[in-house]
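in:
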């Protein structure tokens, strides 16, 4: 009887402690939410000089997620001369309508969300990872909400041929390829992404012998060419190869030289997943022996256990797989995972074409009516052509090395957006980069001396090339070497710190965010969701248009 009473008392105490912990966490979240709502109601006083806002000519190249975010930011703070140059006929970047059928977000929509514009319910009802049409519509509504279409001159089918510096006028003279039109810019923003539109198609001998069809993933469209095929061979292990393999999984062979881990979607649905991932990434060191025991356990034991078992690389380290060019591949639904198990996997590479398909290096012959190259796109080398006469660096083969992944010291008032990988919340990342760009252009955020920037970039370039194996994106994911800026959150806070502490108190807690425990990107909602107050009456309309609720 006495032992039973003691056990009952222990259970009661444990229950009380659990209730107390729950109550404490709930109280803290309520307190944070209250503080967050007060910050949203507290306007931001526009620190940018009215003359600069009304006279500076801003030209943005590209209308993808970064280009539209940059335009919105400059509109929000009262700039009146903004032009977007878009090479295609529509906005959206990689989410344009001509993207292949089945293209979708890898992760849940709340990890690809603007801090000041939640996904409309009609776009994500019953969907966790929206497809290309929904993502493009989300970007379009964001632009519409912040008057980008009415306040920005968007010029379609305008591909930039050259941009030449006019030192006397302190501006850039931009020449359009199609029309030879000339546009002058005081602030030039390059938001064209770090991949070109030129597909990578490997040279495989005896192509003339092959009697089937050869296409790149960018040419698949709605997949009609695959519907009548009895056998399909997909070369590559990227996201596009995975997506296209979903169209006809029963008769698909996936050929990949280097297999990569595929992560199940449920892992991304865990509360605080992005913060746990940041903690894991921040513990990355090139040499395994330099990593902490916790990082090694998570990386080499836990992650390989939960990673999808149908496609395992030789490496036992998920971090090494990502950092060596694998990226983070996600099985977005259980149906897609079941489809992937139907594929025939060949861990090899094509040796030559045959009449009926491909002969592989491992000696296997794969019969195929259609060969699809899911091999991605060439890295962007257009910068060397656009900025003719400027030697940016020795080679662009492994990416363009920039100060804070945004600025090149040889290109005054030119800013590059979207050149940092991997990003677990691209829209929030683009928003902070746009804000930093605007504050730098306005002279509020001070850049180091040119010689200091060049030295920092040179040192980083040498370290990266010495420590990381070659990849076309090596220059964009080496921020793990940067210590305190080793994740999205700390990187963006570092950019905000440059803005003279202007937004310091508006950044919410990293771990217990008051708005959404599933995405730390919302931590910046009080920066982008508050009203912008300008001192001159001419910009009052802009200020009211900028109000948004998270």
């Amino acid at each position: 009887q006495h032992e039973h009473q003691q056990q009952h008392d222990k259970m009661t105490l444990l229950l009380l402690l659990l209730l107390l912990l729950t109550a404490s966490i709930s109280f803290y979240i309520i307190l944070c939410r209250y503080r967050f709502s007060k910050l949203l109601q507290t306007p931001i006083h526009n620190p940018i000089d009215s003359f600069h806002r009304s006279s500076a000519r801003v030209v943005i190249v590209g209308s993808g997620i970064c280009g539209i975010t940059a335009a919105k930011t400059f509109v929000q703070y009262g700039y009146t001369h903004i032009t977007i140059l878009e090479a295609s006929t529509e906005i959206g970047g990689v989410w344009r309508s001509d993207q292949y059928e089945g293209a979708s977000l890898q992760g849940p929509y709340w990890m690809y969300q603007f801090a000041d514009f939640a996904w409309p319910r009609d776009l994500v009802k019953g969907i966790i990872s929206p497809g290309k049409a929904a993502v493009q519509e989300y970007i379009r509504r964001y632009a519409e909400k912040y008057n980008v279409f009415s306040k920005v001159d968007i010029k379609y089918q305008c591909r930039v041929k050259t941009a030449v510096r006019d030192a006397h006028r302190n501006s850039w003279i931009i020449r359009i390829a199609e029309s030879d039109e000339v546009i002058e810019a005081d602030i030039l923003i390059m938001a064209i992404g770090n991949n070109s539109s030129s597909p990578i198609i490997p040279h495989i001998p005896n192509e003339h012998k092959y009697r089937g069809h050869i296409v790149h993933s960018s040419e698949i469209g709605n997949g009609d060419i695959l519907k009548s095929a009895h056998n399909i061979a997909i070369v590559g292990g990227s996201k596009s190869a995975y997506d296209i393999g979903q169209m006809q999984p029963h008769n698909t062979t996936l050929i990949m030289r280097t297999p990569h881990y595929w992560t199940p979607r449920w892992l991304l649905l865990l509360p605080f997943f992005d913060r746990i991932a940041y903690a894991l990434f921040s513990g990355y060191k090139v040499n395994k022996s330099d990593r902490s025991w916790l990082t090694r356990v998570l990386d080499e034991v836990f992650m390989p256990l939960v990673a999808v078992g149908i496609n395992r690389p030789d490496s036992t380290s998920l971090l090494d797989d990502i950092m060596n060019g694998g990226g983070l591949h996600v099985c977005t639904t259980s149906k897609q995972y079941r489809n992937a198990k139907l594929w025939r996997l060949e861990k090899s590479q094509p040796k030559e074409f045959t009449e009926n398909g491909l002969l592989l290096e491992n000696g296997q012959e794969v019969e195929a009516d259609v060969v699809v190259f899911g091999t991605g796109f060439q890295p962007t080398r257009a910068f060397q052509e656009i900025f003719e006469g400027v030697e940016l660096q020795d080679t662009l083969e492994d990416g363009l090395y920039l100060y804070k992944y945004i600025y090149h010291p040889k290109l005054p008032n030119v800013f590059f957006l979207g050149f940092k990988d991997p990003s677990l919340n691209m829209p929030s990342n683009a928003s902070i980069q746009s804000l930093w760009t605007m504050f730098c252009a306005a002279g509020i955020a001070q850049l180091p001396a040119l010689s200091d920037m060049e030295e920092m970039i040179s040192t980083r370039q040498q370290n990266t090339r010495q420590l990381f194996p070659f990849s076309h994106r090596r220059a964009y994911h080496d921020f793990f070497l940067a210590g305190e800026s080793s994740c999205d959150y700390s990187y963006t806070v570092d950019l905000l710190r440059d803005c003279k502490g202007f937004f310091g108190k508006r950044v919410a807690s990293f771990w217990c965010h008051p708005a959404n425990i599933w995405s730390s990107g919302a931590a910046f909602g009080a920066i982008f969701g508050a009203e912008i107050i300008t001192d001159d009456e001419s910009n009052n309309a802009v200020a009211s248009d900028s109000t948004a609720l998270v």
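note: DSSP finds 19 helices and 22 strands in the chain.
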